[in-house]
C-alpha cells in the first residue's frame, strides 16, 4: 500500500477585538468637542472621494472599533488592522511617515525584512474620516495561518490630522473588489484566491455585540454554529463595494424609506448605519411614538423615546431582495441610540457594524453575492 499526502488550502479564523472607540478616546483626553468642530466628517467621501471636502451633516460617527492582528515581512512585524469591506487596499504606517499619527503606532521598516521588494508607485486614499499617502511595496503578509506571499501593500508617509492618531488600530486591510483599489493594487483576498490559499473563494464575518471577545473574520469558509436557520443569499448589484439592492425600509408594515428600491453597501469599516438625511429623520404619522429612526443625538436627549425605542425594536425592517431583515436600536454602555447617520448620495445606504453584528454575514466572491443569517 502506498501513502500520499495533499496540502490543502487553509480555512482560517482571524479573531477580532472590539476596542475602545475613537469617540471614547477623544472624550477621555478632553478633545472631542474641539475635534468635532475642526474635523467635519462626510461618510460619503469614503465611497466618493470628490465629496471629501463637502460639509458633513453629522460629524465623527465612524468609530471603526473592530480590529485584528496581521504581520508583514520576514521576520514578521505585527500590526493591528481594520478588516474593511468598504475599501480594497492594505496599508500600514511606515518608518517613512513623519505625521503625528505614526508616532504612537507600529511602523513597518522595510530594512528589517529580507523579503521586501520596493516599487516606484505612490498611493493616496481618502476615507470617510482620515486619509493617507505613501508608497507601494511587496512582502509576505501573514493573516492568521495564511502566508500570503508577494502581496502588494501601502507604506504610509503621511497620515494628516488627528483621526488616525487616536485610532486604536495601525492600518487598514481592505476586502472589497479590485476595481476600486487605489493605484490598482491587488487586494489581499484576491491574492489569497489567486494563490489557492483558501478552501473557498469567500469569507464570513461575526461581530460580537458586547465588549467581550468572540468576533472574527473567517477566510475560506463558513461556521454554521454561529447562525440558525438558513443563509439568505442576495446577489450583488455591482462588483465594487459589497453593494446590494434593497427593496424598501419599513416600520410596522409601513414603507418609510427606500421606496421603489435603493442601493446599499455592507461595510465592516463603518460603525453606524447611514441613509439619506430626509429618510433617517423620518417620523411616522401613524406611529407618533416610534421615532427612534432619528439621529442618536435626539434620542440621547429624550428618555421617553428611548423607552419607546426598546419597545419597538423589532418594528423596523430592511428588505434586500425581498428578504426581511429586522433591525434593533443600538444599546451600548447602558444607553440606547438609533445607530443612524446621514449620507446624501443618490439615495445610497451604508449598512455598517451596528447592522452587521446582528447577523452572520458571508461575502462570496465566487458567485458575487452576500448572505445574511440570524445569529444562533
TrEMBL record:
<dbReference type="InterPro" id="IPR021109">
    <property type="entry name" value="Peptidase_aspartic_dom_sf"/>
</dbReference>
<dbReference type="InterPro" id="IPR033121">
    <property type="entry name" value="PEPTIDASE_A1"/>
</dbReference>
<dbReference type="InterPro" id="IPR001969">
    <property type="entry name" value="Aspartic_peptidase_AS"/>
</dbReference>
<dbReference type="InterPro" id="IPR012848">
    <property type="entry name" value="Aspartic_peptidase_N"/>
</dbReference>
<dbReference type="GO" id="GO:0006508">
    <property type="term" value="P:proteolysis"/>
</dbReference>
<comment type="function">
    <text>Shows particularly broad specificity; although bonds involving phenylalanine and leucine are preferred, many others are also cleaved to some extent.</text>
</comment>
<feature type="disulfide bond">
    <location>
        <begin position="258"/>
        <end position="262"/>
    </location>
</feature>
<feature type="disulfide bond">
    <location>
        <begin position="97"/>
        <end position="102"/>
    </location>
</feature>
<keyword id="KW-0222">Digestion</keyword>
<protein>
    <recommendedName>
        <fullName>pepsin A</fullName>
        <ecNumber>3.4.23.1</ecNumber>
    </recommendedName>
</protein>
<keyword id="KW-0064">Aspartyl protease</keyword>
<dbReference type="GO" id="GO:0007586">
    <property type="term" value="P:digestion"/>
</dbReference>
<keyword id="KW-0378">Hydrolase</keyword>
<feature type="domain" description="Peptidase A1">
    <location>
        <begin position="66"/>
        <end position="373"/>
    </location>
</feature>
<feature type="active site">
    <location>
        <position position="267"/>
    </location>
</feature>
<feature type="active site">
    <location>
        <position position="84"/>
    </location>
</feature>
<keyword id="KW-1015">Disulfide bond</keyword>
<dbReference type="Pfam" id="PF00026">
    <property type="entry name" value="Asp"/>
</dbReference>
<dbReference type="InterPro" id="IPR001461">
    <property type="entry name" value="Aspartic_peptidase_A1"/>
</dbReference>
<keyword id="KW-0645">Protease</keyword>
<comment type="similarity">
    <text>Belongs to the peptidase A1 family.</text>
</comment>
<dbReference type="GO" id="GO:0004190">
    <property type="term" value="F:aspartic-type endopeptidase activity"/>
</dbReference>
<dbReference type="Pfam" id="PF07966">
    <property type="entry name" value="A1_Propeptide"/>
</dbReference>
